[in-house]
Amino acid sequence: MKRLFGAIKDELPGAVRRQGGGRTVYIVATSGHPNYGDEIILRRWLRLLAKTEPDATVWVDSPAPGPTAALMRDEHPGLRTTDTLYRLSWEAPSDDSREVAEFVRGALDDPGSAPRWIPGIEVLRGLGAGDVLHVVGGGYVNSVWPRHLGLVAGAAWVAERTRASVAVTGLGLLPADDAAREVWKNAARRIGVLTVRDQASLEVVRANPDAVVAPDDALLGGAAGLLARDAATAPDVMVCVQTDMLAVPFDDVVETVRSTLAGWGVTSGAQVGFVECIPRVDRAIYDALSDELPGARFYSLWEILRDGLPARPGQRWISSRYHPHLVAAAAGASGVALSVSEDYYAVKHGAVAALGSGWTQARVGDRGLVAGDAGSLPARAQDHGVRLLATARRIYAPHAR
């Protein structure tokens, strides 16, 4: 099989040849699902690279390379999309993260063991001095999706077996079972720049003594660029509540939102806007309450990606989603961060609180909820962005300015 791989490699030089005059940057992300937070994180990194390295070849490895290519088509002139590391992780014979990691490493060592993905594997094997592999931020590498630990194993393989630089930034790693922790123990020490977005995640990567807690990647460059220009005309009350990953019945979520809106004196749909982070998944709360609140405004994912999040001072938000909490609080809005699962979303909202948000942390079923203020996050958001730019310089130096 190795001999066959060599023949295929000779016949497909275009699959491995460096394009353009710049280096290769290989980004691992979870774009294309689509999901608001995942899309803005990738877009911010691509826009930075478009300014600093427009001649680079930028590969984005995501679980949905087609939608990613369409969504990000204008963000970098050297953009190419693939799903190689995801494919290898999905191809593994077990959901055990350790076995997934072993399979991915084995396929990178011997591409013939995963022959369907040889052209993509060869891109990774072809990374060299000056190139960068960067796993960007999000909450997608943990025990909720145990096969995603294969992404970490792939990054560590590149760090160990090639001359490329490897970075991991802004990940949320909880929940992390024993298998996930073992994969990180083996991988973390090989990664040159490693940041996570909460203190509990830092404990998972202690094998790398230089790992640190850092602001969420979405704040790269600050929060202002994520806000809608016409936010001043947005409703005074905003709701972003999901139907996925619930640890409680959705009817209980609806009742919590309903009672909170009533407690805030909301009597008219004109007072309320509903924000969607994942199409359909986040529309259900609007559908459940729209008959009671006729005229309520609905903001689709595509609208907020195009125009920005309609967040401003003076608003009150109810959000179960992490990134609307982060961005709206940075804009000066007050709100309630509604946790729908303790081992995943409570940690996420706690990370925003650590960045300065004063929003009330609540559980489904809580009553009499009062919106907490934005805290220090509006004043600190720009500093958070500056800190992330400093991390970018470490990753992409000397190109990031």
Automatic annotation (TrEMBL):
Pfam families tied to this protein: PS_pyruv_trans
Isomerase listed as a keyword: no
A molecular function GO annotation: transferase activity
Polysaccharide pyruvyl transferase domain segment(s): 35-220
Highest rank taxon of the organism: Bacteria
Keywords attached to this entry: Transferase
Protein name: Polysaccharide pyruvyl transferase family protein
